[in-house]
Amino acid sequence: MDNWTQYFENQAVWNSYREQAALWLKQAAAESHIPSMYEYGLMLIAGHEGDAKIGTGEIYIHQAAGQGHADANNVLANFYLHGSRSFERDLREARKYFEIAAAEDHPSALAQLGALYEKGLGGPADSAAAFECTRKSAEAGFPQGQYNLFIYLWNQAGGQERAAALGWLEKSAAQSFPQAMLMLAHLTATGQLPQHAVETAEPWYERCLGFEQTANIACLELAQLYQTLCLDTPRLLRAVLLLQQCYEKENGETALALECREMAPPLVARLRDSIAEFAHDNDLLLSAIRASNRFDPHGHPYLNSADRDRLLANKVKEFPELPTRAARHRKQLQDFLSGIKLPARSFKSRNQGAPGELAPRKPGRNEKCLCNSGMKFKNCCGR
Questions:
Q1: Which residues lie across from 301 on neighbouring strands?
Q2: How far apart are CA 208 and CA 246, in angstroms?
Q3: How far is C-alpha 282 from the geometric centre of its chain's CA atoms?
Q4: What is the rounded distance in angstroms from the CA atom of residue 311 to the CA atom of residue 170?
Q5: Nearest in space to 87 (alpha carbons), one of 116, 65, 112, 117
Q6: What would the pLDDT profile of 297-351 be if each residue is shown by its tens digit?
Q7: How far apart are CA 71 and CA 7, in angstroms?
Q8: I need a labelling partner for 134 at 20 to 30 A (CA). Which of 97, 206, 306, 321 fits?
Q9: pTM of this prediction?
Q10: By C-alpha distance, which of 277, 198, 208 is closest to 236?
Q11: Confidence at residue 347, expressed as pLDDT on a 0 to 100 scale
Q12: How far apart are CA 121 and CA 127, in angstroms?
């Protein structure tokens, strides 16, 4: 039996176990078994029986909460905090159910309740109660509570409080809490933690790239870190790609996107000036040209990297010698990239032909070469 056969057989076994567990939970929930109502409710909310049953899952959670189940009270509080299929957003109700769960020392509820107390949401502000809830959550090992406690202590005057704050930040980051990892990377990269070498921020930023809530700012700050460090050619290439990625994900509209746009031109110019250094390795050369192709002639990022990459690939496929020749001179590279244009949208029918070609017309043998070498095509890329 090969590994793939074993894998699929194991998957089938686990799926059968999962279906059996779901059946048992469903039967027990129907009999008002409180832990089963909670667990089966979570399965329905996760879409186990389709979108139509999500509301039913929320009702099961509500019923389990009414029977004093701490986890259910915490989930129900989050329904009210954010709004859900069956429950409209209601901060007072959210606060009430977080308080019920927190009374059972539920670490997540304690962290959320501390934030509500601190901001005065759903009721009056209470800084002392906020700190106490946050401390309990942190000491219970909950990463959000640890991060919140870091914020509280870091903002207090005095080095002793900051030393304690940093300890909580590191504990939260060690559990891969995204905001904690980003903050630790930022403080390290900006030299606010002298005990940490600046370059140790890089792996924290890399981990932040895997989380939606921190990925974009991590792109920008990692590019800024590369500027601070020795900006060798591989880091230069990576920095340029990170800036374009952030700009595109932010749709070019936010303050973060604007920072990427303003930072990019000198880095892109430097990449284009040094692109000949990649000529010894065709894969690296194509990567560098691909990165450069995601920016306009002024070094500002485009929003359509996938389309730009596709058109570049088509052009290189038709003229495979173009990248090597374009890398020899900055002007030839820019002319090469300038020839890559997205086709205008068209409403032509299929009988009228495609709305524009993805690759340039192949020149005649005696016409000038597309790489702008000044030579005839037959003596240059057409050989």
A1: 295
A2: 13
A3: 30
A4: 45
A5: 65
A6: 899 999 999 999 998 888 777 767 666 665 555 555 555 555 555 443 333 333 3
A7: 34
A8: 206
A9: 0.78
A10: 277
A11: 33
A12: 12
> Distance (Å, rounded) from C-alpha 240 to C-alpha 267?
7
Residue in the structure block whose two tokens are 């501390």: 114
Please, what's the largest Cα pairwise distance for the chain?
Answer: 86
What HEC string does the chain produce?
CCHHHHHHHHHHHHHHHHHHHHHHHHHHHHCCCHHHHHHHHHHHHCCCCCHHHHHHHHHHHHHHHHCCCHHHHHHHHHHHHHCCCCCCCCHHHHHHHHHHHHCCCCHHHHHHHHHHHHHCCCCCCCHHHHHHHHHHHHHCCCHHHHHHHHHHHHCCCCHHHHHHHHHHHHHHHHCCCHHHHHHHHHHHHCCCCCCCCHHHHHHHHHHHCCCHHHHHHHHHHHHHHHHHCCCCHHHHHHHHHHHHHHHHHCCCCCHHHHHHHHHHHHHHHHHHHCHHHHCCCHHHHHHHHHHHHCECCCCCECCCHHHHHHHHHHHHHHCCCHHHHHCCCHHHHHHHHHCCCCCCCCCCCHHHCCCCCCCCCCCCCCCECCCCCCCEHHHCCCC
- Alpha-carbon distances, residue 34 vs 17, 29, 60, 70, 71 (angstroms): 22, 7, 9, 11, 11
60: nearest Cα among 81, 75, 82: 75
Neighbouring C-beta atoms of residue 371, cutoff 10 Å: 25
188-240 per-position pLDDT tens digit: 999 999 899 999 999 999 999 999 999 999 999 999 999 988 778 889 999 99
